[in-house]
């Protein structure tokens, strides 16, 4: 059979996850071992999502910056659903004081 499971010398846990990019947000679905009796701990930083639970932990590096304060997660039946709130891209050359041209018609 194909593909031997090599243990990573870094000690990564090999979380299996799926990321869906939805514009302003991204959805991360992580499959955790079904035997977990406690909710995991999920910590966000601007470029990663750290998941730890009952001695297991894993870090998911992100391809984009997020807003840790507004990112959320829920855990149900071994599935961890994470909603990552992306940092909005800065629009070059737009004055934040300038609201809309409708006022000047």
What does this structure look like?
- With 105 residues, the chain is mainly beta.
- The protein contains no helices and seven strands.
- Strands 1-2-7-6 form a four-stranded antiparallel sheet, with no helix packed on it. Strands 3-4-5 form a three-stranded antiparallel sheet, with no helix packed on it.
- It is elongated.
- Residues 1-12 have low confidence and may be disordered.
Give a quick summary of the entry.
Helix content is 0%, strand content 41%. It has 105 residues and is mainly beta. It has a four-stranded antiparallel β-sheet with strand order 1-2-7-6, with no helix packed on it.
Short descriptors:
single chain, about 100 residues, mainly beta, four-stranded antiparallel sheet, 7 strands, disordered N terminus
Write the layout of secondary structure elements.
Elements: E1 16-22, E2 25-31, E3 41-45, E4 48-53, E5 56-61, E6 72-76, E7 79-85
Antiparallel strand pairs: 1-2, 2-7, 3-4, 4-5, 6-7
């Amino acid at each position: 059979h194909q593909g031997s499971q090599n243990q990573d010398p870094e000690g990564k846990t090999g979380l299996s996850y799926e990321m869906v990019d939805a514009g302003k947000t991204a959805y991360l679905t992580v499959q955790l071992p079904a035997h977990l009796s406690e909710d995991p701990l999920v910590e966000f930083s601007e470029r990663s999502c750290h998941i730890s639970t009952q001695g297991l932990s894993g870090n998911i590096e992100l391809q984009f910056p997020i807003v840790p304060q507004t990112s959320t997660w829920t855990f149900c039946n071994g599935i961890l659903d994470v909603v990552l709130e992306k940092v909005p891209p800065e629009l070059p050359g737009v004055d934040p004081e300038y609201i809309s041209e409708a006022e000047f018609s």
